[in-house]
């Protein structure tokens, strides 16, 4: 049982003592983290730091060894309706026989009983989601014909249609072009303005300051977390990446936002 | 004409129903890259049937179905255990499991052959579609005669029942199946229970394989699980259309195969008939070959 | 029992001894080539190959039967089998390379279609005036009982050839299995190496037809390598071990089948192999089920213990029931949840360990990554006393974690 403190009841995702192991090696070790409501949080860490595993364990895709996960103070198992998930784009077979709109309506899975056909209004909702990511023209396109960035937008649209309080994204910017990255960030910021919470595994340190307001630095353990200005420091980054960042890189990362923007182009 | 109703109608109907049933499930097996689970399960029906025969001492079809069902379940559990606990790659785990169980089946069978009881491996492998004779089927009017209909071979009712079950399963779980096949992680995140649906799918594969096994032998089952669905995959990019194509291919393969086996040698001037089950599976394979060469969507979609 | 002993000691006549030796060689060859195929993650290709032999067998039988009236002539049958197996293999390759279908669908389609066509040909044979038809079904489940010396010699020779070929090419095989991309950059023709592997696999399958039958030969190429994998992590050891296991399975199977008249050889060989597999699966100290389950339990308890002790050290409440139980059982926690004196001491130690590890990770990140530590192993077992002394000296008096935040 987790203490029902105020912060945990309000948080769309509170993790406590979460450990996940593969073959007797902890991939995620004893992580505590309370997602601030309405925040846009980046999970940052080197390769193999357990970022994706943390998300999968939270969602119940991977088994946890210890620890518990709460959504608004309730066990996540009962509250999964409030959580939307955008998996890594590379985790699925894009040659699957489905169209763009088929994939987006998959997000309505929980709203449709088996005897209910997919009706016009569901299609309408899917089209709305698609238009939010600028993909409405592609609704009937076979998913195998999409570019990487377009595939990512479709995945995002599938999460949008769930209208969840918390959206968890795994590397949404991996392998997408600059224009798509901008578009996706705009959608995410829009979601934030609507009061929704976003938790996002992110690999590009240069854009952390630009895109996010909170950060969780992770390398198997939690190294630090908090608002970007406080937690995204040279010392914490050094601890997370274990000295693999050069002093030059660190200095650049610590500079104000404008620098990050020019790198993002 | 009366010959047709007596000798051909039932085998043809059984072959078509089995073909369509297996092809329907096959669509999901092919999409999940699990085609070979059908292969594994059809092999292990043999030990199940032999074991039930040894235990009950007779060839009662109920007991045989049960035995085959149990052995299919044992197979699935064994594959999972070897894969998870032993950290063995899934195809190797499958290979270990089904060959061992099949070996056990053959051993038990030969033991009993020695004791003078009749049941042979060949029958199990290629079935005996031609033996499904409808003695009362003396003409078209028999179709409306309740007495004659009551004399239909029981295999027909059984495969129709299993076919209905499979159709119901796919209809009810269509979204689960699609979601789990496309994106299992997302399916888990919306609590679509991909692992459970996976198990259900495999169980139904087992049920279909067993029902078919008794009537037509296991080789046609494997072919029907894979060939029509694979051929359909090369024809279209829509799931609905793919399923429709696979059903069409299954019907064509069944009818054409049956006719070729029964009448083909006669056309060539020989007085013999060939294995109908084998011919049906061969035609299914040829259909796949044709789509591999000329299918509209034989290559993966390009961005 | 007595007959078995005679068979085991090769005193059951020249023919039986020859068959036993031939089967053992076959087991060795199948185990070796099977190991590479397993490492390449293509185990079930052998299933396609073996089923694809049937039409070739049947065709050869028909041709030979038309010529000499009896279709049973092993060399021709083997050539026919090899021919159609090669064709099946080619079809699998083409389908999985040229179309969007996966290798699983290609294997399944080829094995079922070829086998079905073979069945059709068998019904053709049944309608022909050829003798020796019953001999053909022997290829489905194997029969060594009626094997003549010349056949056993042929099988033994082929198996020996496979063994030698594997020995000669083992390095290229390993490189391709380990990392095909890298092998290509080293100037190796990975396609050709793959082809050589599959060709050898095909030879094993074809000569195994007579011994175990076409469905069960697959087992001999899969089970011994999988078994070997339980005992070693090194590929070459695995190949050797798989060969030995294949030899043992062949030896046990053939000799067991000579105990009573009418015991089928193929299934006994496969079941012997499975017996060896099962023992390894349960009891192997490395990857066996029992060892894994024990290790998992131990590991889980260690994680809970460490997390609990750290919570005690930081005066945080503990809610996890298992953690509480473990701490209580060790006497670190009273029933009402208050830490005991030894509990506090252990918690201080755990906290100290954790800080040492953290400091070590910070000071020597590269080394820390090299050590496959989980932070749960006592640091003293990983670092030298000197290194720990240095770390201790650097340790700030109060927790550094807080200082950083």
TrEMBL record, chain A:
The UniProt record lists the keyword Cell cycle: no
InterPro entries attached to this UniProt entry: AAA+_ATPase, ABC_transporter-like_ATP-bd, ABC_transporter-like_CS, Metal_Ion_Import_ABC, P-loop_NTPase
Keyword annotations: ATP-binding, Nucleotide-binding, Transport
Span of domain ABC transporter: 13-245
Keyword S-adenosyl-L-methionine assigned: no
Family: Belongs to the ABC transporter superfamily.
Record's protein name: Manganese/zinc/iron transport system ATP-binding protein
From TrEMBL, chain B:
GO biological process: response to zinc ion; transmembrane transport
InterPro entries noted in UniProt: ABC_BtuC-like, ABC_TroCD
UniProt cross-references to Pfam families, sorted A to Z: ABC-3 (PF00950)
Membrane topology classification: Multi-pass membrane protein
Residue intervals passing through the bilayer: 6-29, 61-79, 91-109, 156-174, 248-268, 274-295
Chief location: membrane
One cellular component (GO) term of this entry: ATP-binding cassette (ABC) transporter complex
Alphabetical UniProt keywords: Cell membrane, Membrane, Transmembrane, Transmembrane helix, Transport
Localization in the cell: Cell membrane
Keyword Cytoplasm found: no
Record family assignment: Belongs to the ABC-3 integral membrane protein family.
Protein name listed in UniProt: Manganese/zinc/iron transport system permease protein
Lineage: Bacteria, Pseudomonadati, Pseudomonadota, Gammaproteobacteria, Oceanospirillales
TrEMBL record, chain C:
Claim: Hydrolase is one of the keywords in the record: no
InterPro entries for the chain: ABC_BtuC-like, ABC_TroCD
GO biological process, any: transmembrane transport
Primary location recorded for the protein, binned into one broad class: membrane
Localization per Swiss-Prot or TrEMBL: Cell membrane
Membrane topology field: Multi-pass membrane protein
Pfam families reported for this sequence: ABC-3
Keywords, sorted A to Z: Cell membrane, Membrane, Transmembrane, Transmembrane helix, Transport
Transmembrane segments: 12-39, 48-67, 73-93, 105-128, 148-169, 195-223, 235-254, 266-283
SUPFAM superfamilies, A to Z: ABC transporter involved in vitamin B12 uptake, BtuC (SSF81345)
GO cellular component, one term: ATP-binding cassette (ABC) transporter complex
Family: Belongs to the ABC-3 integral membrane protein family.
Protein name (database record): Manganese/zinc/iron transport system permease protein
Native species: Billgrantia gudaonensis
């Amino acid at each position: 049982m987790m203490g029902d403190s105020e912060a945990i009841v309000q948080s769309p995702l509170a993790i406590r003592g979460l450990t996940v192991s593969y073959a007797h090696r902890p991939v995620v070790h004893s992580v505590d983290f309370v997602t601030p409501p309405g925040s846009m949080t980046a999970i940052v860490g080197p390769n193999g730091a357990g970022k994706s595993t943390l998300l999968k364990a939270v969602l119940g895709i991977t088994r946890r060894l210890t620890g518990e996960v709460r959504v608004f103070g309730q066990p996540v198992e009962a509250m999964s309706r409030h959580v939307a998930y955008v998996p890594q784009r590379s985790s699925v077979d894009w040659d699957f026989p489905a169209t763009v709109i088929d994939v987006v309506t998959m997000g309505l899975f929980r709203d449709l009983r088996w005897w209910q056909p997919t009706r016009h209004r569901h299609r309408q909702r899917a089209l709305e989601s698609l238009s939010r990511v600028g993909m409405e023209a592609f609704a009937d396109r076979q998913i195998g014909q999409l570019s990487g960035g377009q595939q990512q937008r479709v995945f995002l649209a599938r999460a949008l249609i769930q209208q969840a309080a918390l959206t968890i994204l795994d590397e949404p910017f991996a392998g997408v072009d600059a224009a798509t990255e901008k578009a996706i960030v705009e959608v995410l910021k829009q979601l934030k303005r609507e009061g929704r919470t976003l938790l996002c595994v992110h690999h590009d340190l240069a854009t952390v300051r630009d895109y996010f307001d909170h950060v969780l630095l992770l390398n198997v353990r939690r190294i630090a977390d908090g608002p970007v200005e406080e937690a995204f420091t040279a010392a914490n980054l050094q601890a997370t990446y274990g000295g693999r960042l050069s002093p030059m890189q660190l200095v650049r990362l610590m500079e104000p936002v404008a620098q990050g923007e020019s790198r993002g182009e | 004409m009366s010959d047709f109703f007596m000798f051909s109608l039932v085998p043809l109907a059984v072959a078509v129903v089995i073909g369509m049933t297996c092809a329907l499930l096959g669509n999901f097996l092919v999409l999940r890259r699990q085609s070979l689970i059908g292969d594994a399960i059809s092999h292990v029906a043999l030990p199940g049937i032999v074991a039930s025969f040894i235990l009950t001492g007779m060839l009662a079809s109920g007991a045989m179905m049960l035995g085959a069902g149990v052995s299919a379940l044992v197979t699935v559990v064994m594959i999972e255990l070897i894969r998870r606990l032993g950290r063995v790659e899934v195809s190797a785990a499958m290979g270990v499991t089904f060959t061992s169980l099949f070996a056990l089946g053959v051993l038990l069978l030969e033991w009993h052959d020695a004791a003078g009881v009749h049941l042979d491996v060949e029958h199990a492998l290629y079935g005996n579609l031609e033996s499904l004779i409808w003695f009362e089927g003396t003409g078209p009017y028999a179709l409306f005669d309740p007495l004659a209909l009551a004399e239909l071979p029981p295999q027909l009712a059984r495969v129709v029942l299993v076919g209905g079950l499979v159709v119901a399963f796919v209809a009810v779980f269509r979204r689960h199946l699609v979601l789990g096949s496309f994106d299992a992680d997302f399916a888990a995140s919306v609590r679509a229970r991909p692992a459970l649906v996976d198990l259900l799918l495999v169980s139904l594969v087992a049920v279909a394989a067993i029902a078919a096994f008794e009537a037509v032998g296991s080789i046609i089952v494997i072919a029907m699980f894979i060939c029509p669905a694979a051929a359909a995959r090369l024809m279209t990019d829509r799931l609905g259309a793919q399923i429709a194509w696979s059903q069409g291919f299954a019907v064509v393969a069944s009818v054409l195969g049956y006719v070729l086996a029964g009448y083909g040698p006669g056309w060539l001037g020989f007085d013999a008939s060939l294995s109908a089950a084998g011919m049906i599976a061969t035609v299914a394979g040829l259909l796949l070959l044709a789509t591999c060469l000329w299918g509209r969507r034989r290559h993966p979609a390009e961005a | 029992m007595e007959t078995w002993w005679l068979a085991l000691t090769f005193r059951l006549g020249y023919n039986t001894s020859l068959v036993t030796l031939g089967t053992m060689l076959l087991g060795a060859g199948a185990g070796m080539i099977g190991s590479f195929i397993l490492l390449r993650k293509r185990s079930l290709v052998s299933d396609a190959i073996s089923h694809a032999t049937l039409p070739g067998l049947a065709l050869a039988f028909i041709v030979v039967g038309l010529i000499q009236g009896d279709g049973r002539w092993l060399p021709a049958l083997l050539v026919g089998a090899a021919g159609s197996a090669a064709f099946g293999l080619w079809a699998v390759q083409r389908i999985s390379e040229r179309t969007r279908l996966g290798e699983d669908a290609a294997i399944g389609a080829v094995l079922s279609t070829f086998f079905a066509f073979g069945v059709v040909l068998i019904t053709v044979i049944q309608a022909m005036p050829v003798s020796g038809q019953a001999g053909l079904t022997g290829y489905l489940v194997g029969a060594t009982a009626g094997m003549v010396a010349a056949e056993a010699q042929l099988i033994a020779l082929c198996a020996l050839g496979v063994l030698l070929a594997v020995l000669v090419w083992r390095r290229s095989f390993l490189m391709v299995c380990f990392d095909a991309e890298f092998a290509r950059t080293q100037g190796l023709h990975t396609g050709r190496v793959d082809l050589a592997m599959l060709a050898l696999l095909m030879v094993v399958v074809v000569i195994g037809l007579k011994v175990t039958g076409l469905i069960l030969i697959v087992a001999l190429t899969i089970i011994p390598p999988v078994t070997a994998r339980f005992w070693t992590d090194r590929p070459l050891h695995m190949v050797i071990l798989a060969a030995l296991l294949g030899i043992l399975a062949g030896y046990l199977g053939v000799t067991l089948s000579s105990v009573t008249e009418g015991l089928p050889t193929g299934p006994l060989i496969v079941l012997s192999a499975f017996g060896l597999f099962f023992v390894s699966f349960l009891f192997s100290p490395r990857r066996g089920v029992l060892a894994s389950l024990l290790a998992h339990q131990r590991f889980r308890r260690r994680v809970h213990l460490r997390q609990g002790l750290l919570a005690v050290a930081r005066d945080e409440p503990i809610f996890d029931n298992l953690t509480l139980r473990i701490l209580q059982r060790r006497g670190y926690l009273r029933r009402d949840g208050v830490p005991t004196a030894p509990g506090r001491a252990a918690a201080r130690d755990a906290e100290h360990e954790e800080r040492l590890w953290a400091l070590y990770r910070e000071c020597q990140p590269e080394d820390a990554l090299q050590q496959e530590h989980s932070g749960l192993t006592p640091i003293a077992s990983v670092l030298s006393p000197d290194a720990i002394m240095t770390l201790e000296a650097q340790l700030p008096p109060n927790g550094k974690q807080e200082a950083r935040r």
